[in-house]
Amino acid sequence: MTTLLIAEHDNASVKDATNKALTAAAAIGGEIHVLVAGSNAAAAAAEAAKLDGVAKVLHVDAPALEHGLAEPLAAVIVALAGPYDAIVAPSTSSGKNVLPRVAALLDVMQISDITAVVAPDTFERPIYAGNAIQTVKSGDAKKVITVRTASFKSAGASGSAPVETVSAAADPALSTFVGEALSESDRPELTSAKIIVSGGRALGSAEKFKDVVIPLADKLGAAVGASRAAVDAGYAPNDWQVGQTGKVVAPDLYVALGISGAIQHLAGMKDSKVIVAINKDEEAPIFQVADYGLVGDIFEIVPELTKAL
Ligand SMILES: Cc1cc2nc3c(=O)[nH]c(=O)nc-3n(C[C@H](O)[C@H](O)[C@H](O)COP(=O)(O)OP(=O)(O)OC[C@H]3O[C@@H](n4cnc5c(N)ncnc54)[C@H](O)[C@@H]3O)c2cc1C
């Protein structure tokens, strides 16, 4: 059993999502090789070599790989796929962009968003917005797997695997990088934040979001999240959305302010270690998953809480 783990990186360093997917790869068992495909990505390859349990890093460097475009990256993965039993990547925007293409080119089914490894060919994954857990057994010779990072701890980084330079497969030239619009923020990134403060429709406006949610997040050094209703109403930007069609998070502390706790929101945050909910409706479903619940008005309670902190 040998697994190829596709590292997510920015050419300089490896993203934590990779460390989490590595823990899933280790649970599958056997030897793990990490692919760092990028441009001038030697620093990222060196960092990947330190990850615990990695037997070897394959470093592929080419200008076409600088921005992680799915087409050239999938070509590299497929060219290397021969000896591997499993190809694993985190279920992030990039993983979800690249791995379906790899699965199609290899003519196997993708096993998406696994939350547990039962056996090397059997995995658990949530379906129906997390309402049920499906156990999937795959008979494919090569398993192409994306990993729900919120379900796995980060692997440590005390290893020293060798880095092997491998030449890149030809770029299929199906896509060209034009530009990217990155949202810049001093806050922790939502999917790796230890604390998240999220606001819902109850906020009522973008201004209230700024006046009520942001100061509490600032006090706690937290990332800011939002329900889809708050995003759809324009109170918060799209990339703050937590849930089935947003980001899946599992911080140490999740604070839900004026969020009802619809199943699609819970699908994105119910694995958080400690959940605090403030809602004026004591029947709100969010209280069923909350470790601490406060029934009351967020416009009174949250400023008081922020002041007390
Ligand atoms: C296919 C699909 C995908 C979806 N994906 C997502 C997703 O990814 N993420 C997501 O969040 N939703 C998602 N939704 C939407 C979801 O069903 C809910 O509509 C949404 O989560 C509701 O957001 P909310 O809790 O902010 O609003 P509401 O459900 O309107 O809840 C507002 C809450 O605020 C409370 N409240 C009001 N005023 C106050 C006050 N002053 N103080 C305290 N509490 C107050 C109310 O009691 C209520 O519980 C999806 C829906 C579908 C159909």
Question: What does it look like?
Answer:
With 309 residues, this protein is α/β, with parallel strands linked by helices. It has 2 domains: 2-166, HUPs (Rossmann fold), CATH 3.40.50; 190-308, TPP-binding domain (Rossmann fold), CATH 3.40.50. It contains 9 helices and 15 strands. The strands form 3 sheets. It has a 7-stranded parallel sheet, sandwiched between helices. It has a 5-stranded parallel sheet with strand order 12-11-13-14-15. The protein starts with a strand and ends with a helix. Flavin-adenine dinucleotide binds at residues 200-202, 227-230, 241-246, 258-260, 262, 264-265, 268, 278-281, 284, 297-299.
Features:
309 residues, alpha/beta, Rossmann fold, 2 domains, seven-stranded parallel beta sheet, five-stranded parallel beta sheet, elongated, binds flavin-adenine dinucleotide
Mind sketching the topology for me?
Blueprint: E1 2-6, H1 16-28, E2 31-38, H2 42-49, E3 56-61, H3 70-80, E4 86-90, H4 93-106, E5 110-114, E6 116-119, E7 122-127, E8 132-137, E9 143-147, E10 163-166, E11 195-199, H5 206-220, E12 223-226, H6 228-232, E13 253-257, H7 263-269, E14 274-279, H8 286-289, E15 292-295, H9 298-308
Parallel strand pairs: 1-2, 1-4, 2-3, 3-10, 4-9, 5-9, 11-12, 11-13, 13-14, 14-15
Antiparallel strand pairs: 6-7, 7-8
The structure holds flavin-adenine dinucleotide.
Helix content: 25-40%
- What is the straight-line distance between the termini? 51 Å
Count structural domains.
Answer: 2
CATH level 1 class label of the largest domain: Alpha Beta
CATH superfamily of the largest domain: HUPs
**Average pLDDT, to the nearest integer?**
96
Uncertain segments:
none
Biggest β-sheet: strands ordered side by side in the sheet = 5-9-4-1-2-3-10
* General shape: elongated
**Number of helix segments?**
9
Q: What are the bound molecules?
A: flavin-adenine dinucleotide
Q: Could you say which structural class the secondary elements and strand pairing correspond to?
A: alpha/beta
